[in-house]
């Protein structure tokens, strides 16, 4: 059995969110031709996507062609909408999660769902996570690599982590909201450079901030092979040893100890990088992506 845990999906359509909530910044999907649609953020093109992103039947044919048995599905991270009013993000999460649940229910042997949450309001996030697990049957949720000004070690997130532990709800951490201006404005650098840095920052925040110490039963998987972390663990450990006044202020345990305490996917696009990732993280901690 081949299980692919990193796959994004959207509803085929959703309400006009600017009209629904009364302000801009939302993403809409415009179907411009058969098998293709444009994600628009206000009046700007965000991305062109194919029908595998909204049509489960097309996706299943693609899975069969590549030998994938089961996919874990989650939303496109631009839909996180942590910048918005929390109640509006909660409403959008209901739309996304209900559509995802319908897809999983229709194809229970081929798909599982990772829900979306209004993480800028941890109390509402816990509420929706309960619904995702208890009512919709999702084994996990997808969250961003940071929540506005909070890194993942923010104390405001502790109740969320405690609830995830209690629910045995896995967390899939995906980079998002990278810097896009200034030096990062050309060559698609936010995705090529910014995303690995975002994921590494998320891992370091959880380690240095003591999150994995405080919540040892938390199951966390980081996207894109853990970003740069597996390939810079030597530098990170060295910094912890030589500058404990900066790195060990919240957690006295070496970062290397946590190898084996979290998971990554295998989406690194290079066989040599994949070999190093498996060597560092461990084969049983690295989930397949196709």
Q: In this structure, how is the largest beta sheet organized?
A: 8 strands, parallel
Q: Number of DSSP helices? A: 10
The spatial strand order of the largest sheet comes to 1-5-6-7-8-9-10-11
Shape: globular
| Strand content bin | 15-25%
Average of per-residue pLDDT values = 96
Based on CA atoms alone, the radius of gyration comes out at 19 Å
Characterization of the model:
- The chain has 290 residues and is of the alpha/beta class.
- It has ten helices and eleven strands.
- The protein has helices spanning 17-21, 56-66, 86-106, 122-135, 158-167, 189-208, 211-214, 229-242, 244-247, 271-281, and strands at residues 3-8, 27-33, 36-41, 44-50, 70-74, 111-115, 140-144, 170-174, 220-222, 263-265, 286-287.
- The strands form two sheets. An eight-stranded parallel beta sheet has the order 1-5-6-7-8-9-10-11.
- β2 (27-33) and β3 (36-41) form a beta hairpin.
- The chain is globular.
- 37% of the residues are buried.
- The model has no long low-confidence stretch (mean pLDDT 96).
